[in-house]
Amino acid sequence: LGAGPLAGRHVLVTSGPTHEPIDPVRYIANRSSGAQGTAIAAALRDLGARVTFVTGPAEVAPPAGVQVVAVETARQMLDAVRAALPADAAVFAAAVADWRVANAAGHKMKKDGSGILPALEFAENPDILATVSQLTEGRPPLVVGFAAETDDVLRHATEKRARKGCDWIVANDVSPATGIMGGRENAVTIIDAHGAESWPRMDKTEVATRLAARIATALDAKGQK
Ligand code: C5P
Questions:
Q1: Over the stretch 88-105, which tens digit does the pLDDT of each residue have?
Q2: Which residue's C-alpha comes closest to atom 5 of ligand 1?
Q3: pLDDT tens-digit series, residues 33-57
Q4: What does the pLDDT read at residue 223?
Q5: Shortest-distance atom of ligand 1 to CA 149
Q6: N or C: which end of the chain has fewer CB within 10 A?
């Protein structure tokens, strides 16, 4: 048995962007680097947890000492998350694409010289955080979501917590002026059933360390392993 406050606990973390294919060689994606999710997985590992790390195609390498499940699309991510359950806690740090291309081609699309342009149709992706939060069987006792907002952060994040059904929301202001998106630092507010707790601006690795410690405390309070 390992040591640390999370020894004997299984924690699931999603991280990175998803890629949604247009055809076999093209995709739609977003600018998530996977930095915050990777730091969280490493911090949970350092507290002794067994970590399953479900990651989209991220820029940052996954941490050592965790079970890495690499996926591309949102639907693959949901399948991988389901397969990784049960877990004592789940942290959804991935920037999942809201939409996928409904009419993705099975072969590389070609310019045919006719001047007719392809038209992409979209379908909504499953909301992985909401799906897991609302499981009637096998819901992790602690489910943590993120909310990256640019305005009215507290109100939007509080609404998001209720709508999705998760226990905590880690909210951050990603307005361009903050320099947080793609930067080294983050300033977050943790929203739970009791209210909001704002942390000072700090390194993303420090946010991860503090969040992992808060998860350990919460699981301790919930009792037996
Ligand atoms: O609704 P919004 O995308 O702002 O919610 C962000 C939170 O929901 C993040 O924790 C993200 O990982 C999660 N999410 C998800 N599946 C989606 C969309 C968001 O798990 N399809």
A1: 999 999 999 999 999 999
A2: 147
A3: 899 999 999 999 999 999 999 999 9
A4: 77
A5: 4
A6: N
What residues does ligand 1 touch, defined as CB less than 6 Å away? 14, 74, 92, 94, 96, 125, 127-129, 145-147
| Ligand 1, pocket-test mutation among 54, 129, 158, 170, most atoms within 8 A of CB | 129
Radius of gyration from C-alpha coordinates of the chain: 18
* Check: complex ipTM more than 0.90: yes
User: Which residues are part of a known binding site for CTP?
Assistant: 98, 108, 126-129, 146, 160, 164
- How many angstroms does the Cα of residue 96 sit away from the middle of ligand 1? 6
Report pTM. Answer: 0.96
